[in-house]
Amino acid sequence: MNPSGNTSPRTRARRAQILDAAAICFVEQGFHGAGMARIAEQANMSAGHIYHYFENKDAIIEAIVDREADIHTEKMMSFHDIPREELAHELVERADEGVRTNTDPFQSALNLEIIAEAQRNPHIAEKLRANDAETRKAFQNLLSEKLGLSDVEGRVELMFTLFGGLPIRILRNPDLDREGLTRYLRQVIRAILAE
User: Lower Cβ count inside 10 Å, N or C end of the chain?
Assistant: First the structure.
């Protein structure tokens, strides 16, 4: 993950501005179709100024992958604050949040662009796998330690597969019934969390 905690608030804000602009460009034109000039234009700064924050476009792509991983890690950490007796219920109830996030057209396109880049770029693939392994391990620990469940690897993999497939489904079926899907996902999550 990106050690941005050592930087000033202004630097973090500028980096976030660049990453937001780059994400828009990458969704519109793909990682390879979006040049630094276009990213700079979207960020309302000069291309030269971007190089103060990122060495090259690959560094921007890597930072976006890290930022996405940080979002997942933050969500995982929020579950640790939930009392043990409420955790299973809360995981079921938050299915709508997972559906909403994973069926957002912009986020779906960005996630798929990251996966496509990982197929071409071994460094991004390695980073994506490492981030995924960290998130999976955190969720496995949560299920085993707080809920006392066995076979947490299989349970977590199934849940990640269900939610990870949603970006593809929303692009293939933009009229997807999110409410109906959420209702069934809640039933599936209850079954996954049952001992």
Answer: C
Amino acid in the structure at residue 102: N
**47-85 per-position pLDDT tens digit:** 899 999 999 998 999 999 999 888 888 888 889 889 999
Q: Is-contact 110 27, C-beta < 8 A?
A: yes
Cβ atoms 18, 43 nearer than 8 A: yes
Give residue limits of the domains in the chain: 57-193
Instruction: Enumerate helices (H) and strands (E) in the chain, giving the number of each.
Output: 11, 0
Contact 182, 176 (CB under 8 A): no
Cα distances (angstroms) measured from residue 61 to each of 31, 55, 117, 119, 143: 8, 11, 9, 14, 32
pTM of the model: 0.83
Q: Say how far apart CA 98 and CA 32 lie, in whole Å.
A: 29
CATH architecture of 57-193: Orthogonal Bundle (1.10)
Phi, psi of 157, deg, nearest 5: -60, -40
Distance, in Å, from the CA atom of 118 to the CA atom of 124, rounded to the nearest integer, reads 5
- The DSSP-derived string for 27-66 is HHHHHHH--HHHHHHHHTS-HHHHTTT-SSHHHHHHHHHH
User: For the chain, how big is the Rg over CA atoms in Å?
Assistant: 18
